[in-house]
Structures are given as structure tokens and as C-alpha cells.
Amino acid sequence: MFAVRNTTPQQLRDALADNVRHYRALKVPPPEKPLSQERCAWAAGIDRTMMSKIERAKTNPSLDTLLKLANYLNVSVADLLAERTPPLTGRKK
């Protein structure tokens, strides 16, 4: 379970920014062009500048904004705020 007690606001903003970029990239499968910030914001029902601020970790979005974004990206708000672990490499020890 994800605990926010020991997380600073900046760490939450950074995790949110990473996750939004990650899930936005997954929204449109390759070989198509990636989903733009503007199109994602429009489809989610949030302002384009808010989307930019979220992805740059420069704002604390409201719960309403997080819900709209999570619904559009088909993930939970907890998924957006969770710190993602880096992918494992294929190295064996």
C-alpha cells in the first residue's frame, strides 16, 4: 500500500508528473504519435496550462483535476500519486 505520510509535497508532485507522462505515453500505442499534452488535457476536461504544470511538477492539482485525469487515463488517483519503481534490468548476478 502506498503511504503518503513520509512523503514531501514535492515528492508527490514529482511522482505525479512522472506517472502522468508515463500513462499518457501508454494511452496511444506505437507506432502512432504520442498523445500530446494539449489533446490529453482537452479530452480529460482540464486546462492545457494545468496539464503542463502537472507534468513539470509545478502545481498541486485539486482532487477534481486528479479524478478527471485518472478517469481519462483509465487509472486510479492512487496510481497517479504512487512512486513508480524503475524497470528491472536483465542483468543476473
Key structural traits:
mainly alpha, 5 helices, DNA-binding, TransReg_Diox_bact_type, 55% helix, 434 Repressor (Amino-terminal Domain)
Describe what you observe in this structure.
The chain has 93 residues and is an all-alpha fold. It has one domain: lambda repressor-like DNA-binding domains (434 Repressor (Amino-terminal Domain), Orthogonal Bundle), CATH 1.10.260.40. 55% of the residues lie in helices and 0% in strands. The chain has five helices and no strands. It has helices at residues 9-27, 37-44, 48-55, 63-73, 77-81. The longest helix has 19 residues, at 9-27. The protein is globular. The mean pLDDT is 86. It comes from Limnohabitans lacus. Residues 43-80 form the HTH cro/C1-type domain. Keywords: DNA-binding. It holds the Pfam family HTH_3. InterPro entries: Cro/C1-type_HTH, Lambda_DNA-bd_dom_sf, TransReg_Diox_bact_type.
